[in-house]
Specification:
There is one protein chain. The chain starts with 10 loop residues before the first strand and ends in a 6-residue tail after the last helix. α2 crosses α5, α3 runs antiparallel to α5 and α5 runs antiparallel to α10. Helices cover 67% and strands 11% of the residues. The protein has a four-stranded antiparallel sheet. It is an alpha+beta fold and 445 residues long. It has two domains: 39 residues, no CATH class; 387 residues, Outer membrane efflux proteins (OEP), CATH 1.20.1600. A hairpin with a 2-residue loop joins β1 and β2.
Length: 445
């Protein structure tokens, strides 16, 4: 018995979509094959569904695939390579010469002439660094690497903020689409009822045209929301990396209110301890001191020692030499003065960064609380009141107990209230993302 499965077109069979051609098999085998193929086909359909990513997944993808962040991370590798360079010792210098060779009198070339008249020198020279220059160079390079690492972490903080806010933009657009679709379906029902009333002579043609034209606004709202979502998804894809998600991806989540019990003082303390840009500024003071110490060490003059082996007049001799630059005019005064001033600059930069941290926390916390109050107002009754007003006006209009203008006004008020609530909720989530970035951590209670 031969069973042949041909994956191809879908054929309805017994109410189950199959992508198989079957011929001449017992009913039991046909049932088993139908179940198997149905599972295969269902798997194919599931595979075609757009991939949906959560906020946490989006953040992780951005950390792994964002090209700007990857480029910033190479700065750490470059700084670590500079540590290797800073720790290198000077290379010894080999010296050699041959003198008094009868190049223009080749007839005089002989073993005796080479031994008694020509001179040969071989030497080795080495620069001895004074003032522990190599150790200070290495220390300064390591301090700079630490600064670069914290700057890279600050780039990650900024990226996570941008990803979080862009993700919220997608959620807002999706929520607006859902609202627009629900409003459009509801208003379409009102249009259908109005058309029936118009045909029955209950309302005038002018009123029917007014309510029918109002349908265009609902359709425009839906189209605008879909466009906003497409644009938000494209912007989010750029942040997480185009290669990390398929072109038809989507997000999973919804706009939600998350209470933050932290006080402003606790958030400020958290930010002062964790903000990477502030930590980079603190390490910048250490790096500036290292540069100053290195400048002082570079003011020390180095000693060059040389050993020469000489063969002349049949004699083999050795000579030792040493030379050192006299620090009369150049004692590295300019670089010492510059690095000393750079310490003051780094200290002021640290103070400015600290003030910026406190300002960011205060701004984000104030925005969060302001939006929280508005969200609570909507959730406390305004949303339900707007919906009840719309439902009452719709019910009354459909039964001829309310005017068209009253119904349209209630519909506009409801739509504006719902849309404003979603925007306020998104603003609250934006402020929460800013507060996380200001505090330097996403792990807020």
């Amino acid at each position: 018995m031969m069973l042949t499965l041909r994956l191809g077109n879908w054929f309805p069979y017994g109410g189950v979509p199959l992508c198989v051609k079957r011929a001449g098999m017992p009913s039991l085998l046909r049932s088993a094959a139908a179940l198997l193929v149905a599972m295969v086909c269902a798997g194919g359909v599931a595979a075609q569904a757009p991939r949906r990513i959560t906020l946490d997944e989006a953040l992780q993808l951005a950390l792994q695939h964002n090209h700007a962040l990857q480029a910033a991370r190479t700065l750490v590798l470059q700084s670590q390579a500079q540590e290797i360079t800073a720790n290198l010792r000077p290379n010894p210098v080999a010296l050699g010469d041959a003198q008094f060779l009868p190049i223009f009198q080749p007839s005089q070339f002989s073993e005796t002439y080479i031994d008694q008249s020509a001179q040969f020198d071989l030497g080795l020279s080495y620069l001895f660094e004074r003032g522990r220059k190599r150790q200070h160079r290495l220390e300064a390079a390591k301090d700079q690497t630490t600064v670069t690492e914290w700057q890279t972490k600050d780039a990650e903080r900024t990226l996570l903020l941008n990803v979080g806010q862009q993700f919220i933009n997608v959620l807002l657009a999706q929520s607006t689409i859902e609202l627009a679709e629900k409003d459009l379906a509801s208003f379409q029902n009102s249009v259908d009822i109005s058309e029936a009333r118009y045909k029955a002579g209950d309302i005038s043609e002018a009123d029917f045209l007014k309510i029918k034209l109002q349908l265009l606004q609902f359709q425009r709202d839906l189209s605008g929301a879909k466009l906003a979502k497409v644009q938000a998804l494209v912007s989010l894809q750029q942040l997480v990396g185009h290669e990390s998600v398929p072109q038809d991806y989507d997000v999973a989540g919804e706009l939600e209110y998350l209470a933050v019990p932290n006080t402003k003082e606790s958030l400020e303390m958290m930010a002062l301890n964790q903000r990477p840009d502030l930590q980079a500024a603190v390490r910048g003071v250490t790096a500036a001191n290292s540069q100053y110490t290195l400048a002082l060490a570079n003011g020390k003059r180095d000693v060059t020692g040389t050993f020469n082996y000489t063969h002349i007049a049949g004699l083999n001799t050795g000579s030792f030499f040493a030379n050192m630059e006299l620090p009369i005019f150049n004692r590295n005064q300019g670089e010492i003065a510059r690095t000393h001033a750079a310490i003051t600059q780094a200290q002021e930069t640290q103070k400015e960064a600290q003030e910026q941290v406190l300002t960011d926390v205060a701004d984000a916390y104030g925005a969060l609380k302001a939006n929280e109050q508005i969200v609570q107002l909507y959730r406390g009754g305004y949303l339900k009141e707007a919906q009840d007003s719309r439902d009452i006006s719709q019910y009354a209009y459909q039964r001829g107990a309310a005017s068209l203008l009253d119904y349209l006004d209630a519909e506009r008020s409801y739509r504006a209230t719902e849309l404003d609530y979603r925007q306020t909720l998104a603003s609250y989530m934006f402020a929460l993302e800013q507060l996380r970035a200001a505090a330097g951590t996403r792990s807020l209670p």
